[in-house]
């Protein structure tokens, strides 16, 4: 909560800065997956002068390198790795170096991706360079997000909400940039170059916003009055839990605000018959309390990443070639998913159902496995085993609506329920466990995408 003697955020400059920083943290991931057709065209052997951000061919380019699957897997593995390295980096590397260094590294790597649009290169080396960029960019993004959440833990919860809202708009921003590039009417090479320069501009704005914070009185006041390191780490862990990593859509802003505010306050006094528990609580004891909620989180992300974007990006329109077939996937897959996922997460601002004691939550989570065969049986031309049972566009759109809303709602719900299942002094351990299971679910889903694609 805001301190009584705190200065005002003049013209909301600090809030705007953290909003842009949130947007910048997840722009790279979203711009990579939204541009999958461009990469597939380059990997299919098309030169930089003929590869398009979205193929005008009705059936789309063949994904010979399994680009969809590899870009998803190599984006999520760094999250799992830096879940373990975060505490080490927090203690050994200064905060400014972690944040500014990560931003500069992401900018340089994405500038390389933009420059490759102008370079004629055979598919093999192009694939290797792109995958290395994806891995390094997402590694730096993981460090960047954790470090920024550490700063946000010292500030009023409103700024965490703004940061998460910026992250939530990253996916929508990438999809709109794709649509504008396609509709611009310029040649394919210029369109692709403009598309990849856009996130570079976003990262530059993020760097300028971060550099401006020490010159703003409001930011200086809070960043110079940090809580203890232990408390900051706890806040960082909890806030990190409430953001969406794989898709870039934040959890419910109201829930994030409530969680951070509660953590900034003193823990309530224990009941007379409950002695204060000293030291760090047992990991096993906390796991026993939240294991079902953690398992639900793993399963939600496993289902989502197993088909999105590896399978869903392959679905094409069943209509005759034309404008709609060209714009079908960026609109019905990426833009629709990000909007509906954001709406699903926002629902937890109004109600939490089912509650933590209900056995209905695991049932709802398991029902999402039905989306795997449903998407695999949609109109995916590149297949050799399974038939197409849902050829019409309306089927895919309906499946995507339910898929995205359920993902957003169930992810946000599990994040909100987990802290309610443990005692106040156990929240730090619960947060660390949930962070691990979040990363585990993302990695499991990315790995399973190879199997499901092979079954097509």
Feature tags:
Growth Hormone, Chain: A; 0% strand; mainly alpha; 16 helices; 456 residues
Structure description:
This protein is an all-alpha fold and 456 residues long. The chain has a single domain (10-264, 280-454), classed as Growth Hormone, Chain: A (Up-down Bundle). It is built from 16 helices and no strands. Helix 4 runs antiparallel to helix 7 (188-212), helix 6 (157-183) packs antiparallel against helix 7 and helix 12 packs parallel to helix 15 (393-417). The N and C termini lie far apart (52 Å). The relative contact order is 0.15. Residues 48-61 and 227-278 have low confidence and may be disordered.
Compact summary:
Its main location: membrane. By secondary structure, the protein is mainly alpha-helical.
């Amino acid at each position: 909560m805001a301190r009584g003697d705190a200065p005002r955020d003049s013209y909301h400059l600090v809030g705007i800065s953290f909003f842009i920083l949130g947007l910048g943290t997840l722009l790279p991931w979203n711009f990579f997956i939204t541009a999958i057709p461009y990469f597939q065209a380059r990997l299919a052997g098309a030169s930089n002068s003929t590869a398009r951000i979205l193929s005008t061919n009705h059936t789309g380019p063949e994904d010979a390198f399994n680009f969809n699957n590899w870009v998803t897997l190599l984006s999520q593995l760094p999250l799992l790795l830096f879940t373990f390295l975060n505490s080490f980096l927090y203690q050994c590397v200064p905060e400014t170096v972690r944040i500014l260094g990560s931003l500069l590294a992401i900018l340089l790597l994405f500038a390389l991706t933009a420059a490759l649009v102008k370079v004629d290169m055979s598919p093999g080396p192009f694939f290797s360079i792109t995958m290395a960029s994806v891995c390094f960019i997402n590694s730096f993004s993981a460090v960047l997000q954790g470090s920024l959440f550490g700063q946000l833990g010292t500030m009023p919860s409103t700024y965490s909400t703004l940061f998460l809202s910026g992250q939530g708009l990253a996916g929508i921003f990438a999809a709109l940039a794709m649509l504008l590039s396609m509709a611009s009417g310029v040649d394919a090479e210029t369109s692709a170059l403009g598309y990849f320069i856009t996130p570079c501009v976003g990262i530059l704005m993020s760097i300028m916003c971060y550099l401006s914070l020490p010159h703003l009185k409001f930011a200086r006041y809070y960043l110079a009055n940090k809580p203890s390191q232990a408390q900051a780490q706890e806040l960082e862990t909890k806030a990190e839990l409430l953001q969406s990593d794989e898709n870039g859509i934040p959890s419910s802003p109201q829930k994030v605000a409530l969680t951070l505010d509660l953590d900034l306050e003193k823990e309530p006094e224990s009941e007379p018959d409950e002695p204060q528990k000293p030291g760090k609580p047992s990991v096993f004891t906390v796991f026993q309390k939240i294991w079902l909620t953690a398992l639900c989180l793993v399963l939600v992300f496993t289902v989502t990443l197993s088909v999105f974007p590896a399978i869903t990006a392959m679905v094409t329109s069943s209509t005759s070639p034309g404008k709609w077939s060209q714009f079908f996937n960026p609109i019905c897959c990426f833009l629709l998913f990000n909007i509906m996922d954001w709406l699903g997460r926002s629902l937890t601002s109004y109600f939490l159902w089912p509650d933590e004691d209900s056995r209905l939550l695991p049932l709802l989570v398991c029902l999402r496995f039905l989306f795997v065969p449903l998407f695999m049986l949609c109109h995916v031309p590149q297949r050799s085993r399974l038939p197409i049972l849902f050829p019409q566009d309306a089927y895919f759109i309906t499946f995507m609506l339910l898929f995205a809303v359920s993902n957003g709602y169930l992810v946000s719900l599990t994040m909100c329920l987990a802290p309610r299942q443990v005692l106040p002094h156990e929240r730090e351990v619960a947060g660390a466990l949930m962070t691990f299971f979040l990363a585990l679910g993302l990695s499991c889903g990315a790995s399973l995408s190879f199997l499901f694609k092979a079954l097509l």
